[in-house]
From TrEMBL:
Superkingdom in the source lineage: Bacteria
A Pfam family hit: FAD_binding_4
Keyword vocabulary terms for this entry: FAD, Flavoprotein
Name under which the protein is recorded: FAD-binding oxidoreductase
Domain FAD-binding PCMH-type: 38-219
């Protein structure tokens, strides 16, 4: 009996026959990146039901030197959750670890397993009159373990922070199969190295997140959105500062969308009613949330926006009058990625910059790309409130998307070189995976890479955890 057969039989003894998937047709959804751009192979897909089973499977892999690719909802964009093409690794699916273990409304904390769908956590918090503010376009299918492993951002970072800032504690299965219970509900714990932060954003390369304690917040009663037209990105930054001074932490989100991105949404989803504003190159979706009296809040917002119009900070504005209108505005914003996908394959960039540098970066990068690929079309949108842009490049009208994708490497170089010049980051919230690992070495110092590799070697000496990712 060969090693792999013995290994799989041992896996069956741990998780049962239904928890070990070896049929290629049943493995397909676990091995394919959701945009269908990359497909891997696996020895098996293993589906444990609890932390103890995860521990036993990881220990077995450690003893047999079998590589592990932890996977949540498989919604990532940098190929971090799928295996390579060797077929020697297992995919460790955490989808069955989907229990809400505890909610403590008085401590504003919720303990959840890694396979919990993000939307499920949001809804469970709402049932207890609390808010879990992490919000992503994929929230109906992504899992909290994946969100933590990539330190996901989303639309509410401006007010509530990234996933890292929303996490109080973790439960981890280490690379040798031991269980570390760090599920503390503390907001202050200054007792040595913060091990929690090592695993958040590590993309499954150091161990397996099996559960987490996440922060909750008082549920806000009123959300009012403003859809705003501005002359350029410089005016957008000025308007952001204006709203922050007026509304402080009540400014929950500040999203930017260029005109072409909204044009794609209008084509793909004609049923969505895009606000009729004066034509401009950029539009803003700002959300202000508060528990104040809604009439007072509406009056305050309309008064401040009137001042912004008079001061020339914006050129046109529409304010939502009810929750349905606000949700419609968000649906427009969240439909940009899908609209672009329907338009054709494109070259995506998930970048972050100092907010003050965003206008100059976009101007210079737009010009550089037009020189290299004349008539290419930019889909620029994202979370301007925290400096995170989704700066995507679509093919010129006369070029097929497949031919255009052949230019991905030089286009990435143009964009990322300018990001580096502006002291930005080539990955704001999607991670590195395999897609960006070569470029990571161009923009991280040798010392930074060396320290990360030392941490990897210390925690995963056999290099079995998500091999080939990040490094």
């Amino acid at each position: 009996m060969d090693q792999h057969k013995r290994f799989l039989e041992a896996c069956v003894s741990i998780v049962g026959a239904n928890g070990v998937i070896t049929d290629p047709s049943l493995q397909e959804s676990f091995l394919r990146e959701w945009r269908r751009r990359k497909v891997g192979r696996a020895l098996a897909v293993i589906c444990p039901s609890n932390t103890e089973e995860v521990s036993s499977i990881v220990r077995l892999c450690h003893e047999n030197h079998i590589s592990i690719v932890p996977q949540g909802g498989n919604t990532g964009l940098v190929y971090g959750g799928i295996p390579d093409e060797s077929g020697n690794a297992i995919v460790l699916s955490l989808r069955k670890l989907n229990r809400i273990r505890e909610i403590d409304p008085q401590n504003n904390a919720i303990t959840v397993e890694a396979g919990c769908i993000l939307q499920t956590i949001q809804e469970h918090a709402a049932d207890h009159d609390r808010l879990f503010p992490l919000s992503l376009a994929s929230e109906g299918s992504c899992t909290i373990g994946g969100n933590l492993s990539t330190n996901a951002g989303g639309t509410a970072v401006l007010r509530y922070g990234n996933t890292r800032e929303l996490c109080l504690g973790l439960e981890i299965v280490t690379a040798d199969g031991r269980i570390w219970n760090g599920l503390k509900q503390l907001r202050k714990d200054n007792t040595g190295y913060d091990l929690r932060d090592l695993f958040i954003g590590a993309e499954g390369t150091l161990g397996v997140i099996t559960a987490a304690v996440m922060k909750l917040f008082p549920k806000t009663k009123h959300q009012i959105c403003a859809f705003v037209a501005v002359e350029d990105l410089s005016q957008s930054v000025q308007f952001l500062n204006f709203l922050q001074q007026r509304f402080n932490e009540n400014l929950t989100a500040f999203e930017i969308m260029n005109a072409f991105s909204l044009e794609l949404v209008a084509r793909a989803f004609p049923h969505l009613q895009i606000p009729q504003l004066q034509k401009s190159p950029f539009y803003i979706l700002a959300e202000i949330s508060s528990n104040a009296d809604v009439a007072h809040l509406n009056g305050e917002i309309e008064n401040e926006l009137s001042q912004a119009l008079e001061a020339g900070l914006v050129i046109d504005v529409v304010v939502t009058q009810n929750i349905n209108q606000a949700q419609s505005c968000w649906q427009i914003r969240e439909s940009i990625s899908e609209a672009q996908a329907r338009h054709g394959k494109n070259i995506k960039h998930d970048i972050s910059l100092p907010i003050s540098s965003v206008p100059d970066f976009v101007e210079q990068c737009d010009q550089a790309l037009q020189r290299y690929v004349p008539k290419c079309r930019l889909v620029t949108f994202g979370h301007l409130g925290d400096g995170n842009l989704h700066y995507n490049v679509s093919a010129p009208p006369e070029v097929t998307p497949d031919d255009f994708l052949k230019q991905q490497k030089p286009i990435n170089h143009i964009v990322h070189q300018l990001v580096h010049q502006f002291n930005g980051s080539i990955s704001a919230e999607h991670g590195i995976g395999t897609l960006k690992k070569e470029e990571l070495r161009l923009y991280k110092s040798e010392l930074e890479i060396e320290m990360m590799q030392q941490i990897k070697k210390a925690l995963d000496p056999f290099q079995i955890m998500n091999p080939g990712k990040i490094f």
